[in-house]
Amino acid sequence: MSKRDYYETLEVDRNAGDKEIKQAYRRLAMKYHPDRNQNSKEAESRFKEIQEAYNILSNEQKRSLYDQFGHAGISQEAGGGPASGFGDIFGDIFGDIFGGTTGGSSRQARGADLQYQITLTLEEAVSGVEKTIRVPKNSVCTECSGSGARSGTQPVKCERCDGHGQIRMQQGFFSVQTTCPDCHGKGTVIKDPCPACNGVGIVRKEKTLSVKIPAGVNNGDNIRLNGEGDIGRPGSRPGDLYVQIRLSRHSIFERDGDDLYCEVPVGFATLTLGGEIQIPTLEGRANLKIPAESQSEKIFRLRGKGVRNVRNGAQGDLHCKVVVETPVNLNDKQKQLLRDFEESLAKGGEKHSPKSRSWSERIKSFFDEIVS
Predict the structure, then answer these.
(1) Which of 297, 279, 303, 281 is nearest to 289 (CA)?
(2) Is the same domain home to 218 and 119?
(3) CA distance 128 to 277
(4) Is the pLDDT of residue 95 over 60?
(5) pTM of the prediction?
(6) Computed over its alpha carbons, how large is the radius of gyration of the chain?
(7) How many C-beta atoms lie closer than 10 Å to residue 138's C-beta?
(8) Is 109 within the bounds of a domain?
(9) Exposed, middle or buried: residue 30 (CB in 10 Å: 0-12, 13-18, 19+)?
């Protein structure tokens, strides 16, 4: 059986705004909630459909995927399936409605995750390094230990909800329990707020952390530090800190995955006659043999001279491209020697320059076809 269109389920147009979608969800959720339709399988099924539709359309990223690809663009992992319980979404909008069956306001909100970018040299990324960073984050106020009350005082019981954090209102034939607007569900209020945090219980300050960077990390990799993110509110579990790696430009090497690339200027005589040159590697100098009659931009691979993979330990390679360096600032004698050498090559025809002869023949054939 195919799924109903989410917009049709919520009875809204495809261009409906967030406020309109939320209002439609509230209206339909109230209508089909199981507490109002006991023993009705049809109402329960409809309620689940409404939850699923709201879960997608209230999320900007999920809604965009759904608008482009329909149900096929929403996987269970992305949150497209039905909510695990009636309270998952319903409680977020209504609070503990229908006598608190959803439990939405009782959950302690987890703190937000943070991201910090750190720039490494290629050498640091390859060998691993330990860095000290200073991260601005929300932390528990040390003056009041997170209570929000001035030192020497304590929060007092909220008079409006009598310390329960919830108040009950009558709507028609059923009562609705919602979060107390005075204490915001805490059950206590602060009469004399802490001057350091203005009664919030949380302050913004920098924390110094030591981060161990494993060998082989690459540009864009993230290192997670559990529990080093923001705290949500006193008593809640803090989020995590993600340290994102950025590599600075290297003067010699370019990195692609675990492989390194470099360009080496080589003299014309060495490429022609062959020889041995020194090239740089991350481990020091290495000798590279150049076969006779090597062409410019030929790439030589040195196995195992790249980067060791941070996950599986496999070693990458170093790719060296040799590029002929044209001599400059020649004196008259050197210029004449080159002219004599060029003439001797021309007498040998394609024996010495097979590519040039082939190129000339292709050009001649091209113009002959145009003329004909």
Answers:
(1) 279
(2) yes
(3) 30
(4) no
(5) 0.58
(6) 35
(7) 20
(8) no
(9) middle
